[in-house]
Model the fold of this input.
Amino acid sequence: MVGGSRGLGAHLAARLGEHGWRVTATGRRPRSETHLTESTAYTQLDLAAPTAVEELSALLSSLHPRLIVYNAAAYPTAEPDLAECERVFRVNALVPHQALAGYLPHAACTCVLINSDSIYHANRHSGVYAASKAALRVLASALADRCRGSRGSAATLLLGPLADDRKEEQFERIAQRQRMSTEDVAQAFLRRANPSYVVDSLIELDACVRSVEYLVELGAHANGMLCRLDGGSAGSLL
Ligand SMILES: NC(=O)c1ccc[n+]([C@@H]2O[C@H](COP(=O)([O-])OP(=O)(O)OC[C@H]3O[C@@H](n4cnc5c(N)ncnc54)[C@H](OP(=O)(O)O)[C@@H]3O)[C@@H](O)[C@H]2O)c1
Done:
């Protein structure tokens, strides 16, 4: 679980562990500050570091995983300079591409690259992040092409707004202040965030777990696949 120290990654790590997987998670923070259960192994790894590709490649070679979930995501500061844009692109697209290109075609392994519906509706605030995720989407196709004729596969799980702790807490606060139900706050958020959303609630983390497990079950058939759990964010055509 690359980027598994908190949020969706920690949730996936816990559930996959409960379902019989032996999980190793990575993140920057020390183990004591992660949201991981005791049964999940943990390695500190900064994916923005100059040595990140070598470190991630070495970890993959030592663990020989049957499943890799690339969940890590870097979010830029409000007005990112070029160095900050490069950091975001490294973590979100370039490091996974370089490390996985060397590993996947030689391993019996499914890789699920977690992507975001931000690629469909970038604005001035989300542009750099969305562009890095769009790069990851394109590089996922390049990885899938490398996997032809091998037992490795690269699939994309593209997600919409998740029911993560941060949003749940924020909605709770607004609901109390406005004397509304949290369900109504969530619906108002979704309508305002993107008129194409056809869901009335945030996407449950367990739905992401089931989607990852589905992609693993498909094995080589999932190579090049795009699985969208995004509330219809791109509208009718895509
Ligand atoms: N949250 C949403 O609503 C939403 C919507 C659509 C798609 N997604 C996608 O879902 C995935 C998870 O999102 P999330 O909201 O759960 O993210 P998150 O809570 O911000 O967690 C991101 C993970 O990436 C790790 N990470 C960040 N920068 C890193 C770096 N330089 N080196 C190593 N690890 C790093 C973090 O660990 P440390 O902090 O320990 O470094 C953390 O474990 C992301 O790929 C995101 O694009 C999320």
Notes: Residues 56 and 129 are 22 Å apart (CA to CA). Residues 3-9, 27-29, 45-48, 71-74, 91, 114, 116, 159-162, 164 surround NAP (CB under 6 Å). The first strand starts at residue 24 and ends at 27.
